[in-house]
What does this fold into?
Amino acid sequence: MKELVEYIARSITSQPDEVRVTEEEDEDGRVILRLEVAPEDKGKVIGRQGRVAQSMRVLLRVAAVKQGAHATLEIV
It folds into this structure.
């Protein structure tokens, strides 16, 4: 799942070397992925009215369900 988010983010940013994805698990067993990008690329990752970010979250949820897990994406 981490690789999926990283691949998508690197594909749409101007500075793919600045993309960082960290993964942690909360007490409920849910996976939280935190995506960090360069400040000038945040707009590209979020998209107009949050459409790109929402699409990334949907793809992440589908991948997580296939693996029998729950996952959320945070953009910081």
